[in-house]
């Protein structure tokens, strides 16, 4: 009895053909392959953005508003500083004017006494001398009240901070380096010195 070869069903793949092609077809029930590429789809290659965890990034309008606010604060600070400088300048000038006025007012009585002495100049020369001396003492007192005492002492040791040497003389009666004569009085002390006293000093042997 002849044996007829059974025709293959086209819907059923031939195992021999699959083995000859060397293709490995995993079943649908196989677990996914492990490795660095496992579980990454076409959308998983991109790194998460910087704002993924911190919320949405600030908009450009917000940055512009903050910049305008900072610029406004800066301009206000400059305006306040300029106003402070102008106010300080006005106050300083006002204080200088007031100080000049107080100083001038302190010398007004000195001028009054000088005019009074000149009025009586023809009557008594001795009275004129006394009057001028009194006016001089009054002016010295005014300078002392303003913080500039008079220095016209003799016999004291020479002090370069208070004295200006205009001559050196031989004085047997005084120790060397002492003030022999005051040619021009000095006024003030230390940092508030108006001028040093011009003196002659005894020379050293």
SSE diagram, text form:
Layout: H1 15-21, H2 60-119, H3 125-145, E1 150-151, E2 163-169, E3 179-184, E4 186-187, E5 197-202
Helix pairs in contact: 2-3
Q: Descriptors for this entry?
A:
205 residues; alpha+beta; three-stranded mixed beta sheet; two-stranded antiparallel sheet; disordered N terminus
Q: How would you describe this protein?
A:
This protein is of the alpha+beta class and 205 residues long. The protein is built from 3 helices and 5 strands; from the N terminus they run αααβββββ. It has a 3-stranded mixed beta sheet with strand order 2-5-3, with no helix packed on it. α2 packs antiparallel against α3 (125-145). Residues 1-12, 15-24 and 34-42 have low confidence and may be disordered.
Main beta sheet: strand number and arrangement?
3 strands, mixed
User: Segments where pLDDT lies below 50 for 5+ residues?
Assistant: 1-12, 15-24, 34-42
State the strand order across the main sheet. 2-5-3
Number of distinct beta strands? 5
The secondary-structure element order is: HHHEEEEE
Shape: elongated
In short:
With 205 residues, the chain is α+β, with helices and mostly antiparallel strands.
